[in-house]
Amino acid sequence: MFGTTKAFSGFSVNDIAAAKKFYGETLGLRVSEEHGLLTLRIAGGTDILVYPKANHAPATFTILNFPVEDIDTAVDELVTRGVRFERYPQIKTDEKGVSREEGPPIAWFTDPAGNILSVLQL
């Protein structure tokens, strides 16, 4: 039924203006706003809807993963842009906040609404 439908994902935030600034300026994504909603234009033609929700609760899981060629370069650049990387007690990370133990190197951070994002080296 939906085999030819171009589906898209979405998530909520509590402040559209803060989200627009973060995703557009800090992360450098193409962002458009229409009718109080944001659309993140991700490489490859994927769009992600960001919508306001008054009683927003941050996702407790990673909602977006950004693959990068060099995680150390990406983490360093994000830090210069004001991003703070998360440290989880159950996951061993290095001084930059990168987990290199299991799977690909990955580091987690949050958007202004507290939603969890990651950069990972593939």
Automatic annotation (TrEMBL):
Residues 5-122 form the VOC domain. InterPro entries: Glyas_Bleomycin-R_OHBP_Dase (IPR029068), Glyas_Fos-R_dOase_dom (IPR004360), VOC_core (IPR037523). PROSITE patterns: VOC (PS51819). This is VOC family protein. It comes from Nonomuraea turkmeniaca.
